[in-house]
Write a structure and sequence with these properties.
Length: 139
Amino acid sequence: MELATRKQRLLAITIDSVLITAAFAWAAYEAFPDSVRLVGLAVGAAVFGANLFYLARHGQTLGKKAVGVKIVTTGTNQNGGFVVNVLKRGFLSGLPYFLLTLLHPLLGALYIWADILFIYRSERRCVHDMIAGTLVVQC
């Protein structure tokens, strides 16, 4: 299996971030009537739910699917499912970010940047990949 390129990984996270941020920003925009804001909230929840479903079933978010990459475990090169992709890769690796952000928002931001910068090592694995034992490969 060929590793996903750094460009593919960065584009996938950009797509995911734009989708979820746009939907929840729409929901939070106070100039919109409540009914319109509710639609934004529903869209945000649908994007979040779709990402959880695709992560568990296919090892992909909507962004990863769009750029043709997926998450696999290092030992088997298979989809790790809900436990690996959502709990370990998402929740467990997000825990240090959350705790550092509680101490100071700058510490949380530094953790995210450090996580992302690990992609520039030869194995192209971020901190969250190492925590979960995953790789991102081309489909």
